[in-house]
Amino acid sequence: MAKVLTESQFQSQIVSKYVDVIGEKLDGKIHSFSDEWFAQAENLIKPKAPIRDATKFTYAGAWYDGWETRRHNEQEADWVIFKFGVSSANLIGCEVDTAFFNGNHAPAISVEAVQVYNDSELEKLGEKDWETVIPKTECGPSQKHFFARDKLTEKNYTHARLRMYPDGGIARFRLYGHVVPITKDTSEVVDFASVKNGGVAIKVSDQHFGTADNLLLPGRGHDMSDGWETKRSREPGHTDWVVIRLGAPAHLQKIVIDTAHFRGNFPQKVNVKGTSVKNENDIDSAEWVTIIPDSKTSADKEHEFSVKDTKAFSHIKVTIIPDGGVKRIRAFGVKA
Prior knowledge:
Blueprint: E1 3-4, H1 7-15, E2 19-20, E3 29-33, E4 67-68, E5 78-83, E6 89-97, E7 108-114, E8 131-138, E9 144-148, E10 159-165, E11 169-170, E12 172-179, E13 190-191, E14 200-204, E15 228-229, E16 240-258, E17 269-275, E18 289-296, E19 302-306, E20 312-321, E21 325-326, E22 328-335
Antiparallel strand pairs: 1-9, 2-12, 3-5, 4-11, 5-10, 6-9, 6-12, 7-8, 7-10, 13-22, 14-16, 15-21, 16-19, 16-20, 16-22, 17-18, 17-20
């Protein structure tokens, strides 16, 4: 059975340690689905919270910001297959949000996964090829549900299938796991902060206007909404910060702080520290080494800083002074 967690438990045990591997902002995709008569499956992976407009109707019926199928499904379940936005991942848990679906929500769900590196092979799969990640579990109307496994799956998967029994609606679906990137030559310089290479923002001082996980996304984004932005500080000496677990311990060569789209609210200065811990529970008492001292930043620009320290680091801590917004953080180096 899957564990049912509270939202605060799920945030601390799952969200802060793992990655939503199917999310739209991570380039997750809908591969296929059984039905989407009332509302489209692509809504499931949208990053923003669902909304409701009870006055809005379409040719199919009432408009919903989610995935909704026809009534009276003659099969056991309706389903959606997702292609991960990362090369592969070990899976740990999921969030199922039935917001605004009341009387037409999914009564139960399950999650399965498969490792297939060529999408064309999906059509050849039989039921026995799909491996259970979250077994069939009941859902209620218009609420968030948080399900987790006792431990990560041993296999790293590339695609997942959400089944709802027998039909109905789900607003959003998040699937969390540990990213397993494509094996790279250990001498190759890569961005170890990138979510595509296993980077995770594990701790953050504040994320009032934009979440810290955005810092590790590919590309430079499209506006301020897909960056990290903190509240305006009013106390002298205030700073904000984020701790990033690198995809693997690495000898860093270059840090990039990108303030793209932050033009009147970029930080005045930044600094970067590094540490190496074997047990992440020790991160609060870790000894941090300054690898980039306080450095002036400016609007809408990629700032590159060379790292002179040759130690291997497992985590970096980026501090913004006193507050503001950052679009992306890159940490280039070679695997230790």
